[in-house]
């Protein structure tokens, strides 16, 4: 078994009386893409933030690369793409990339090369010198992804990376993710696009703060006796609701 | 260095936002110019006084460069005339009694009329006194003459009667007054005196607003979270902000002070460098306060709501109104406002010409304010990331 990039054990989190995560565990080894799927409000983003150490948890432990989070040195090795496009709109794409690159300790030739590569992956090379105010939603999404890829991190955490991106480019991005995975990097992706879920190595279904099911897409389909991930999800959801009623 | 990256970004964003830049640099100049003209024209105020059946002597005495007299007949009623002709006051005489009705919607006009009336009464009294002495003297001289002739007719008495000394004649003492001003000069206006405080206030207000709102934007757009997902230290973010906006505050302060000194030729007794230093410290307090307050706001509008709460009261305690004449509890309250210390230091340096040493106490308190808020800001970012 490869080293665990992410090791989350029995994490629980509540905001006031609203329980967002109930004892969720998650393991991600290097060289794998783990898809976190679930409806909005399921607790995906909270779980992702807990992994990054940006959300304190009420119970359980979160470790990245064997280190308990939060830890600033480990941040250097994570590429994070938030759900909202956190970009400086008055700056150009290149200036945004340069700024985050500098924060990540890249400089000089190395930074220039990294910017060129990341921009090429998300197909923004031609638009690098335009201000973000002139960018479309999809372009902003792609730039956010480029920032996450910039410093060639060992672990990528992507929160809804392909929202608003057209199918062709989506394929291109997934091809890049596959390639990174093959290089031995670990990738945690949240999505609610079921078609994307099929492309992950492992899946975790999360609903109402509870991990409903976990496994490879094929195992999940087989175990639930259905032919698509969407059906797996619906079936697992119905079982969860039935379980609640019985109590 | 990560701080430099933040500073560069803050500066670049600011330069791109032309309107905010204009607000920060030009708005203070505009307001100063307006105030300059508003307070310069104070001296040419003229109040119109309506008179009815008032002795002509008194009316003449009432006239001065600040009053204008309008006569009405006996039937005129004060209230109607004041409203119709916009009189500052209406004076009506019945036998020896004067009745004055003030419009009193402009306290400064009321004061002018009161002054004129007081002056006129004094003048008339002095005139009456002089006249009385004159008649007395004439009477005395007549008596002396009579006495002399009587004595000449009876020389055997051998006694001379001393004529009353000429000096006995009453002459009103005529003083020449030479005025010296310890601070400023005879043409010191409200503007000259309070300009230093106004400078400090503008710096404080605009820096507070701009730094607070820009950090608020970082919070609401998620860039702050994004920043904290990099290995940056919390202190580096705050330091980057302090340096970036601090540079703008310096430019703003220098521009405003230079404008006041060159265009309006305002007298500043103390060193301009110390004035700049005080303003810079005020800007640092405003900067750290703005960032701190932005924690409690969820939108720009909520940020604006802090202006009447935190900024406006500072004006009252900045020295525009004499703090030492306030009730004790208000004087105590003044001490929690940074602008109280800033205003005091600015006044001392600009109008009293004291040096850096004399205002050091105030400056250290400003430094303390800035340090406390900065520490609170660094700690406050723990909300986003605990390390």
Automatic annotation (TrEMBL), chain A:
The keyword Lipid metabolism does not apply. Residues 6-233 form the ABC transporter domain. It holds the Pfam family ABC_tran. Keywords: ATP-binding, Nucleotide-binding. The keyword ATP-binding applies. Gene3D superfamilies: P-loop containing nucleotide triphosphate hydrolases. GO terms for molecular function: ATP binding; ATP hydrolysis activity. This is Abc transporter, atp-binding protein.
TrEMBL record, chain B:
It comes from the Bacteria. GO terms for cellular component: plasma membrane. One of its GO terms (molecular function) is ABC-type transporter activity. The chain crosses the membrane at residues 21-39, 194-216, 237-264, 270-294, 306-323, 363-381. Keywords: Cell membrane, Membrane, Transmembrane, Transmembrane helix, Transport. The keyword Transmembrane applies. Residues 155-384 form the ABC transmembrane type-2 domain. It holds the Pfam family ABC2_membrane_3. It is found in: Cell membrane. It is a multi-pass membrane protein. Belongs to the ABC-2 integral membrane protein family. This is ABC superfamily ATP binding cassette transporter, permease protein. It comes from Levilactobacillus namurensis DSM 19117. The lineage of its organism: Bacteria, Bacillati, Bacillota, Bacilli, Lactobacillales.
